[in-house]
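Contributing new complexes? Match this layout with manganese (II) ion.
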Amino acid sequence: MIDLHAHSTRSDGRLTPTELVDRAAEAGVTTLALTDHDTVDGLTEARRAVDAQGIAFINGVEISVTWQGRTLHMVGLAFDAQDSRLTDGLATLQQARLSRAARIATKVEKLGVANALARVQAMAGNGQITRPHFARLLIEDGICRDNAQAFKRHLRPGRDAHVSIEWAPLEAAIGWIQGAGGIAVLAHPVGYGFSGAWRARAIEAFAQAGGDGVEICTGTTDRQQEVTAARDADQHGLAGSIGSDFHAPEQFWLALGRLRELPGDLRAVWHDPRFQS
Ligand code: AMP
Ligand code: MN
Ligand code: MN
Ligand code: MN
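Output block (do not edit by hand):
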């Protein structure tokens, strides 16, 4: 059982890296990647926990990219987490997250949230501050009912607490991952709310920029979407990946490792020799 996309408290996940690994092992996952947003800080702790559980662990990260004015997510897998071009690149995104957080804080304070920046900083601790942290404030202060409503009303593009910033360029993110010896995967192509035409353009741009694979099966895809994504990947000579995008046990509909197999005979990223080390 393979799961190559999951989050911890180092970004917007609810479990520490150790708790995540323990839960994955309990669920029967045999190969796990931790892929926090724009940070590799959780990998050391996760690897320590994995050694105790005896499951295979793959270094991972989910890098925020701005492409054609839109946000894309690049999952990096099986890289050297000490590579300085990668860590320098991630440091610029972490800086961008911090300055964005200050601007979002001002906006949610206008909605009635008190002391927003200090509270998200305390909440995130040694992890990256993400929009779901602000969603939690809006819920805590009784302004929104749940995470979905907080995004729908306030945090998504075009809403009153949204702040758009420039993430990494597509080519740069792929270069950081591959320069560190890793595999670059376009995360959840059906998860951006794109039209079919824009989705096709994004996969094509990703392939042209030298990307390696596309995430085909996630915790929220249906078989039709998976078959379509696999066909698009195959058309561009890209391999396929699978990953739940697990964030929290409260997302009861989405479990670690509960993923379908890649459709047809699409080449799997985990057959790459870089996965064997
Ligand atoms: P950020 O990278 O800080 O802008 O936050 C992105 C994260 O917010 C994603 O990885 C999801 O976990 C979450 N997210 C994004 N859009 C939505 C949405 N419409 N509803 C719920 N969660 C969302
Ligand atoms: Mn997330
Ligand atoms: Mn994502
Ligand atoms: Mn994710």
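Reviewers usually confirm one structural detail per submission. For this one: The mean pLDDT is 96.
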